[in-house]
Amino acid sequence: MSEAKTIDVIVIGAGAVGENVAGRVVQKGLSAVLVESDLVGGECSYWACMPSKALLRPSTVLRAARGVPGAREAVTGTLDAGQVLDRRTSFTSNWDDSSQEEWVASAGIALERGWAKLSGEREVEITHGDGSTTTYQARHAVVLATGSTPTIPPIDGLADLDYWTTREATSAKEVPASLAVLGGGVAGVELAQAYARLGAEVTVIARSGILGNYPPEASGLVLDALRAEGLNVHTDTATTSVRKENGLFVLDIGEGRSVTAEKLLVSTGRHPHTSGIGLESIGLDPKKLTRDDTGRVPDAGGWLYAVGDVGGIVQLTHQGKYEARMTGDAIAARAQGTLGDHAEDWSPYTSTADRRAVPQVVFTDPEIGMVGRTLEQARKDGVNASETSLEIAVAGSSLHSDDYSGWAQIVVDEDRKVLVGVTFAGPDVSEMLHSATIAVVGEVPLDRLWHAVPAYPTVSEVWLRLLEKYGM
Ligand SMILES: Cc1cc2nc3c(=O)[nH]c(=O)nc-3n(C[C@H](O)[C@H](O)[C@H](O)COP(=O)(O)OP(=O)(O)OC[C@H]3O[C@@H](n4cnc5c(N)ncnc54)[C@H](O)[C@@H]3O)c2cc1C
Ligand SMILES: NC(=O)c1ccc[n+]([C@@H]2O[C@H](COP(=O)([O-])OP(=O)(O)OC[C@H]3O[C@@H](n4cnc5c(N)ncnc54)[C@H](O)[C@@H]3O)[C@@H](O)[C@H]2O)c1
After folding, report:
1. Ligand 1 in contact with 145 (CB < 6 A)?
2. Taking Cα atoms as reference points, which of 262, 229, 305, 69 lies closest to residue 161?
3. 37 pocket-lining for ligand 1 (C-beta < 6 Å)
4. Taking a C-beta distance cutoff of 8 angstroms, is the pair 81, 198 a contact?
5. Same CATH topology for 2-46+92-149+271-352 and 366-470?
6. Ligand approaching nearest to the C-alpha of 116
7. β-pairing, 110-113 with 32-36?
8. Which GO biological process categories is it annotated with (predicted)?
9. 315 CB less than 6 Å from ligand 1?
10. CATH superfamily of the 2-46+92-149+271-352 domain
11. CA gap 278, 260 in Å, rounded
């Protein structure tokens, strides 16, 4: 084995999160190497956020035009599935990462292709495609940014079949005649609607309800829309076994019922990717990786960090990139000796918003945008919380489309008179979400928020209605 190379920071995994943490430490004057075994850019760019949103967007535009007389008459054709798939492919750069590779080089980050494994304290061994190895020693930090892996449920027969995960669903070259979707989380529901609108006959099988992390009024609007569009959605339904017959998947869903489909998408959640990366070599249990708010893994002695999906706190690109900025700055500050073990909440080194103000969007049509806590979560956290909710019915929404149907909710900390959670559901609500994120993160007092006047006639006027209903 050749001598180990020494560098300030080693980042394992060049997804959006790994790229950002490497970029941040280099900006702060440290040297960094980024190690990637697959495509630079990770899941979000090639098999998750970008392609799934590209598959959804054209049909949302079409439905929006159909909701407005005058425009409706101009829509004479149907969705062109081939064009939709082509546009999706262009958003993934045809699964070619050369432009990302160029960005890494332009940012002054070293790139190593291969599988990285911790091989000792501050030490990482990379096995390249040709079997050769390179070893790096980090002066300051090793950062795990290895993402997450699909969780496949132990359903009889499933393991032996060629089912789709979200990777195959987001990169498919053809629309199947029929698709069964196992799991009613955000990935399953978004892809179910995308494929139904592209022409597939889609059946969703959800163990409980769909989009269970959101208030039921919000997920109910999505469920109603899916059913109105002709999707079969089985809620509170357990899948007991799966097999293939005549080339089709057959799922047994209890009481003698079954679902048959050409393709089966298993989208039943993801877990942190901690296996096969050598955590055992430094005495850590891959199933019990924890991180503090600066991203540091407390049990490793101060040099190991975990950011993004692998950190096990939030599985969202924007939140992982936020963690990357905080962790990158914490690593640089600790290298300079200006930060000790502890960092205050809301400091430039702590991802405090992970626990209090995570914005998330379900990009179905209608959309859901939520930030912070639901009423139940807030009360569970010991907040003396109240909720105010209403249907979105303002001048802006009636102008938006004739059939606009939406719902909004604020969750208020009654002791401090600030918002701790906001949810909007309805067409195009995602662009309103950042106003709510600012209110929650900024802990804007309600009597000051009362002075934030929404422009007329926008859908944002729902803010005014919510505050009026609350009692302002
Ligand atoms: C279908 C779908 C749609 C989604 N849509 C959205 C969305 O709209 N908005 C949103 O915010 N989030 C979305 N997400 C979540 C988002 O994709 C993830 O939160 C995000 O990709 C996590 O980024 P990451 O960098 O932590 O991990 P990843 O993007 O998974 O990157 C990890 C990288 O590490 C590499 N790697 C792993 N182990 C090693 C190793 N040992 N050596 C070398 N390299 C290694 C992997 O190859 C990979 O490239 C979606 C997820 C799915 C599944
Ligand atoms: N718009 C977005 O931001 C977006 C889109 C897609 C995915 N994501 C992220 O990706 C991650 C993965 O998405 P996901 O939808 O796979 O996970 P998820 O955890 O959101 O949903 C998984 C769903 O599968 C269900 N499930 C589990 N086992 C099951 C079984 N045996 N049978 C039927 N249902 C079962 C769960 O009850 C849950 O509803 C999420 O954490 C999410 O944050 C984000």
Report:
1. yes
2. 262
3. yes
4. yes
5. no
6. 1
7. parallel
8. 2-oxoglutarate metabolic process
9. yes
10. FAD/NAD(P)-binding domain (3.50.50.60)
11. 41
Whether the CB of 375 sits within 6 Å of ligand 1 = no
- CATH code linked to domain 366-470: 3.30.390.30
Distance CA 319, CA 310 (A): 12
Q: Nearest bound ligand to CA 17?
A: 1
Residue 100 CB less than 6 A away from ligand 2: no
Tell me how far the alpha carbon of residue 22 lies from the centroid of ligand 2, in angstroms: 28
- Consult the annotation and say whether 252 binds a ligand: no
Tokens of 49: 């956020």
* Structure confidence at residue 162 (pLDDT): 98
Is 471 assigned to a binding site? no
Q: Can you state the angle between helices 186-197 and 216-228, rounded to 10 degrees? A: 20
pLDDT tens digits for 438-454?
A: 999 999 999 999 999 99
Interval 38-76: pLDDT, tens = 999 999 999 999 999 999 999 999 999 999 999 999 999
* pLDDT reported for residue 150: 98
Distance CA 65, CA 72 (A): 5
Reference 139, options 122, 162, 114; nearest CA is 122
First and final CA of the chain: distance in angstroms? Answer: 71
The CATH number corresponding to 158-268 among 1.10.12.10, 1.10.3730.10, 3.50.50.60, 3.20.20.70 equals 3.50.50.60
- Ligand 1: which residue has its CA nearest to atom 1? 48
By percentage, how much of the chain surpasses pLDDT 70?
A: 100
Annotated ligand binding at 269? The verdict is: yes
ipTM of the modeled complex: 0.98
User: What pLDDT does 227 receive?
Assistant: 98
Nearest one of 316, 284, 287, 318 to 142, comparing CA atoms: 284
